[in-house]
Amino acid sequence: MGLKENDQSPSHKENDIDEHEFDDSFCFAPDDTPVSVLVPTNDNAGNKFDALEEKLAEIRTAQGLALSEDSCDEESSEGDVSGVEETLDFEGEGKAEYFDSGEGLGVEENISTFSELNLSRSLLKGLASLRFDRPTPIQKVAIPVALMGKDICGGAVTGSGKTAAFLIPIIERLIHRPKNVPAATRVLVILPTRELAVQCHEVAVKMAQFTDVRCCLAAGGLPMRAQDADLRCRPEIVVATPGRLIDHLRNSASFTLESVEILVLDEADRMLEDGFKDELDEIIKHTPKQRQTILFSATMTENVDELIRLSLRRPVRLFVDSNTAIARKLLQEFVRIREERETDRVPILLALCHRTCTERCIIFFPTKELAHRYRLILGLAGLKCAELHGGLTQAERLDSLERFKLGKVDFLTATDVAARGLDIQGVKFVLNYSMPANYKLYLHRVGRTARAGLEGCSITLVGEGADRKLLKMVIKNSTVPVKHRLIPPSVIEQHSVSSQNMQSALNGLLAEEREQKLLDRTEKELTRAENIMHHKKEIHSRPKKTWFQTSRQRMDSKKRDIQSLGDDRQRTGKNESVKKRRN
């Protein structure tokens, strides 16, 4: 028996299969409590963070690295702005007829409260606990359509509430599911990154806390055994990353997707860009053909063939805003870095952190090495900082994210792992160490602030060449003035001296960390060898893990993904050139 559809008309990819170091004492929050799943029961990651903070404090005291405040203020001047709003073009030949026009669905957009959507009282209570007072524009149109069982291809600007837009109708339909049948997994939600999966699971658990709907998390980097035990209970909702889900499908005997009736692909374009094409094909192959599919993304690809490949059947298009739109309450500022002054990036960043972006600030870097290096630099400068990137264990990543969310640190140095989808309330500033690779990635970075109607500020250090071209695109698509921030030379000079003074201490810390990593790796290999010697029979008696591809097939798939990504970028460049000629 299927889910009961509401017949009323309501007004670089991460390898999830590889095990990361993570203590087995990690506990998942019970599904009937709103406890955050972000906090492990062990304090290994927290102790490591505290130890580094103590060491940085000792170095600051010993070498006198504390920075004195000065009276010079930065100056800002407005740049030229031409506000242009672009929309997705799905009206081409062969595309429009693929989508459901949505006519006759009776969707009422003039909705001011969730109660007007005829939702169950237990769900409304869960929404109230999350302080969800009124539906956002994407929720107003998506929830009624999803309750009707229609396939959805939806998109809106980042921070518009897409996660709740699919979770609310899912939980509402599960509340009315048949109760006299065996438990089964009826909903599968796929997300590209572990952090997004943890966040989505946390929201789902809190939203469903007053119902009998259970939710399980199956994300990479977390203990397989705990997830396997949860999946055996056949929870109604499974939130997963692609690699770990396939691992469970292949190696957890009791877990199947035969009963899945709703498939959600969140940030679908990101999964395709990250090379999860074959994994998504494999997952879709294991789900029933007669299902509802909901595809959401902050930015939607124009290649509708990809959406067809993801098996949407006559989906309703729900695009609330332009895919190039920037939040209206976001103040964008840029600091020019001339080619001969590239060494000024460090003092300029320090000046901004000390004087302007003093709290609730995320700083984006192009590599994990730079993100870690500047975490140490900010620590030596006396600023409370955490880091988030792929060079950390999953426990350390979740610990850093939780510290920043709770306000225990003021700064978060991060790579683009934190750029997409993560909903961190109250982020006031976003700093870009350099321009990102493309405009879409810029949108996601600055989208971490000015969310849910709040004000925010982004400051980007802009170099020459490609950076200038991207800056022009940002100015073109902005509906509010873009400002050029000037840092006084005296301020740059002061922080330049400070950064030079901490260079020897920084090099010493990095050298010490390299030695510690080598020792940890050696100890890990020694422990592994001892386990093999003492538990040889038990280890060899375990069934080997399997994967749906051979090593050769995985290599070929990776090459195809790289080639496809390059072709997409080339097509995008050609399309932009055509637009310029037309204008």
Automatic annotation (TrEMBL):
**Name of the protein:** RNA helicase
Organism equals Paramicrosporidium saccamoebae
Cross-referenced InterPro entries: DEAD/DEAH_box_helicase_dom, DEAD_box_RNA_helicase, Helicase_ATP-bd, Helicase_C-like, P-loop_NTPase, RNA-helicase_DEAD-box_CS, RNA_helicase_DEAD_Q_motif
Q: Name one GO cellular component term.
A: cytosol
Compositional bias ranges of the Basic and acidic residues kind: 1-15, 553-583
Q: Which residues form the DEAD-box RNA helicase Q domain?
A: 112-140
**Per the record, what are the reactions this protein catalyses?**
ATP + H2O = ADP + phosphate + H(+)
Bias type Basic residues, positions? 534-545
- What GO molecular function annotation could you give as one example from this UniProt entry? RNA binding
